[in-house]
């Protein structure tokens, strides 16, 4: 049912009631009339009685305003025009449901005494700020007797931005203010404008504003709604007006595909869905870019979508699709507005940051790329955020993201505005910094793993100290995907060994975190680069890395093929450090396949090579897993000897390293097999203490499950169940079937009456074990 427009008198009563916090029933109680009768009067179904009007004016402290409005309304004076300046809302509007709900909620609850309801919509180019404003206002404008006023202030357009005087004169004319009202000073005309809107509240849309100063005299008073859009952050405006603040992001991937389907045709998009998804992604999921791409698809009905997708994949040809003689749909002209408003230093940071070949980049990387101090780079990035030329990363890390269109624009600007030598130096600085930092991270995660042949000096120090495990792990978490992008770009720009060394240096990180999907990508990229360079060292290391990743992905046969190839190449080229890891990875693949004899031989060879290459941590890890292999073969005494040897070794090198947790875990397993569950618990608890900080959920779950087995052997069923439950949650988070198997096992546990507490048994955090409630 359509919403009925209120007359000026009714709108004023509604506004004043809300100001005083009074409902219609509250107002009726203070008069001699019923709420039903008041409702009919306010909806124009009854004439306005002078006595009632005077009574309501006094109750609401209107100061005669209601009496004057009633007199004008009752006298049959010519009604003033109800301006409707709102341009047509977009025909195809997709998504934004949560934002529209937020705006609707503000309309109901955000009224403040003396202030209009204010909504500020910010965002980068082509995100659909104006379309959102038009779509929402078109839904609500019938509620406002003063209609709708609209002005495009062209805030960033050099030399063509509208002044408050120009806009205000247009608004007063639309409101039938009369010639006298338009002769005063700006302040006098603004006061008259607000007085008119106080009588007949309206929706005011101020599009493309530059600053608070540009719109201060255009803001209405209480009762009206003002919607403002801007390319830049309007901190000063929000500080003064409050209201709803919306930073409009691009569409989601699903919404972008829906819009493309609506404009380019459902059948055509559905037939080439993968190409359509690529097109939407390369458009940055920006509504206007999607519409331009859809228009091109319609204009070329016989051209496959794959052709457009490939064109948009090209950094050098991408922007051609969005180039037009119409400035509103010409990507160069649109981005120029924001870019040219920047300070020169910030423009340079944008150009050089934009040529970093990754969608997510850190402030440290930007500082290195631009050759600037970190604080200076941070300041420039803040200015770019203000202009919405970069956005914060989706995970709210300290990285920023730049969409493909902006990166292509920045690259084009850099080619024109910066000497080629400076661009090359920037690439070189960044590549060497990433290689040096990745080497330090690898050394921190696996001390001694990163041998000197992989080291690359950098003119800028890495952002964490040598040996800082936590910082190295956090850096790899943040930068792994960017490193792969950097390495891929380095390969195409003839950066030689760095193209395969960079992804290879992530191997300890991948091994510790079990992120095998990213590992597969990194290893494949590194191997392709090494083969291009025809380097036996690189081919061997990258083939080994790919084989290890395939093993973690569950492709054991393919993994063993790659690992044998790597081992043969490394043996012939004399790369003993690489051969040690190939043998170690081969052993783990054999072990997981149940070939324990072959695993034992490979582990023994790996341990021997680690000793020869002076990598004691590797030797300790190999011996810890040899303990597990001998335990599987039934050689309990040898298993215990290897486990003790591994633990003693690793405790002298890195007692808080995950390798120490592995050694404690394996010794606990051996002790459990030798029917010494109480002694095993001590080592499981020590392993768990390390696991809480090592970010290895799979190893953590294995130790919790083994600890539960030891507790069960002691008759502590409830305590075992608690340990199993923690393990089960980790397995399920990893989508590992062992979580469901453990859940089924827990269901069969039933504690005996009067279960005793084991003396000396402890929980992972060192507290005495208490029987707990089962799941």
UniProtKB/TrEMBL annotation:
Residues 13-66 form the HTH cro/C1-type domain. It holds the Pfam family TPR_12. Residues 751-775 are annotated as: Disordered. SUPFAM superfamilies: lambda repressor-like DNA-binding domains (SSF47413), P-loop containing nucleoside triphosphate hydrolases (SSF52540), TPR-like (SSF48452). PANTHER family: HTH-TYPE TRANSCRIPTIONAL REGULATOR RV0890C-RELATED, REGULATOR-RELATED. This is XRE family transcriptional regulator.
